[in-house]
Amino acid sequence: MKETLKDLKERRSCRAYKPELPPQKLIDEVINAGIYAPSGMGKQSAIIIAVTDKEMRDRLSAMNAAILGITGDPFYGAPAVLVVLADKKIPTFRCDGSLVLGNLMNAAHAVGLGSCWIHRAKEEFESEEGRKILEKLGITGDYEGIGHCILGYPAEGGIREAAPRKSNYIYRI
Ligand SMILES: Cc1cc2nc3c(=O)[nH]c(=O)nc-3n(C[C@H](O)[C@H](O)[C@H](O)COP(=O)(O)O)c2cc1C
Questions:
Q1: pTM of this prediction?
Q2: How far is the CA of 14 from the centre of ligand 1 (A)?
Q3: Of 159, 17, 23, nearest to 78 (Cα)?
Q4: By the 8 A CB rule, do 63 and 130 touch?
Q5: d(CA 35, CA 38)
Q6: With CB atoms counted within 10 Å of each terminal CB, which end of the chain scores lower, N or C?
Q7: C-alpha distances in Å from residue 70, one per residue of 16, 58, 75, 87, 107
Q8: What is the pLDDT of residues 50-100, one digit of tens each?
């Protein structure tokens, strides 16, 4: 239990990665933590597209960069990307997907991997190219991109210390 609390407090976003792909077993442990996230009425509205194929990883990075209006890699060199989308038919879909992403990032930290939420999955999968990727995977429902959890071994300097917590975070009654 103490370890869980420590992990939750010490997880930080990682923004520089070693190029090697972590073992599939480790990635699967992270994914497994994601699929056990709570969801509104237990509807499990989210899905995860686990990308370890370099060509697809680079394609998503380029799509994300174009949306952001940059030419660099918005995935900071991370070799794996877990894209979370959620079914728009379920009223709690954005909350559900966000909780999956939270679990993924915390689990990544717990198994010694770096991670970071990368945004713009909505725009990415609303695009023609994004729709085609979903179609090819046989994903036919009305899914909205919630976010990417990039994943890999942290490179030096990739992780910054936590910002101080704001003073008015908590109100007690
Ligand atoms: C909804 C959301 C979107 C985010 N999008 C990005 C992003 O596109 N790129 C990025 O580098 N970090 C992104 N982040 C990471 C935040 O910048 C990061 O969590 C924040 O600075 C706090 O740092 P920490 O995660 O190390 O505690 C995002 C985080 C959240 C929750």
A1: 0.98
A2: 9
A3: 17
A4: yes
A5: 8
A6: C
A7: 17, 14, 12, 29, 30
A8: 999 999 999 999 999 999 999 999 999 999 999 999 999 999 999 999 999
**Which among 11, 13, 144 is the best mutation to test ligand 1's pocket, defined by most ligand atoms within 8 Å of the CB?**
13
125-157 tens-digit pLDDT:
999 999 999 999 999 999 999 999 999 999 999
CA-wise closest residue to 28 among 57, 8, 48, 58: 48
- Number of the ligand 1 atom closest to the C-alpha atom of 76: 11
Percent helix, percent strand, percent coil in the chain, to nearest 5: 40, 20, 40
- Residue keyed to tokens 């915390």: 106
